[in-house]
Design a protein that fits this description.
Strand order of the largest sheet: 8-5-10-3-2-1-11
InterPro entries: Cupin_2, QDO-like, RmlC-like_jellyroll, RmlC_Cupin_sf
Helix content: 10-25%
Number of domains: 1
CATH class: Mainly Beta
Organism: Terriglobus roseus (strain DSM 18391 / NRRL B-41598 / KBS 63)
Order of helices and strands: EEEEEEEEEEHEHE
Protein name: Cupin domain-containing protein
Shape: globular
Oligomer: single chain
Strand content: 35-45%
């Protein structure tokens, strides 16, 4: 005789060592990272979420955005302001404020602010770790919208070398432009 019984999930007890995390993008003490002309503010790190995900507020000025890359974790973008061009597996899509874009793990992608206005988006990476890569290769800046200093050609070459060397440690592969 078949059982129609539903098994109940057993949840672990509440971990009282974990605390509520409440933040906002302009809160004092947050980490603002300048990277490839953009500014990334870490709202929630893996330390805040037991490594489950990180949440990053991204300020992308006109012309900004990372080059093509891929990584072995899920990534979701929620556009709050502006419009950007996203390339996913070679196909370009325009993403506008109010839309959400999800990139599955390992898929080649990039995004670019092709407009003449700033783009603001929230980026969720699951599991966490991408925020550590950004901190390792970026430079600290003062606020959520402070642009990083424009690097000299020599500094840009040094940045590319460092990012390329560190990318595998953070489960990321930097790809060449097609």
């Amino acid at each position: 005789m078949e059982s129609n019984r539903i098994t109940e999930a057993v949840l672990p007890p509440d971990d009282l060592a974990r605390t509520l995390a409440l933040t906002m993008a302009d809160a004092p003490g947050l980490q603002h990272i300048g990277l490839v002309g953009d500014t990334y503010t870490v709202l929630l790190s893996g330390k805040d979420t037991a490594g489950k995900f990180c949440l990053i507020d991204m300020h992308i000025p006109p012309g900004g955005g990372p080059g093509p890359h891929r990584h072995d974790f899920e990534e979701t973008f929620i556009l709050l302001e502006g419009e950007m061009a996203a390339t996913f597996r070679g196909e370009k899509t325009t993403v506008k404020a109010g839309q959400t874009l999800h990139i599955p793990a390992n898929a080649p992608h990039m995004f670019h602010n092709a407009s003449d206005a700033n783009v603001r988006l929230l980026c969720i990476c699951a599991p966490a770790g991408q925020e550590e890569f950004f901190a390792a290769v970026g430079v600290p800046v003062a606020t959520r919208t402070t642009a990083p200093p424009k690097p000299s050609p020599e500094a840009m070459e040094e940045f590319k070398k460092k990012a390329g060397e560190l990318a595998p440690k953070y489960r990321t592969e930097l790809l060449k432009e097609a």
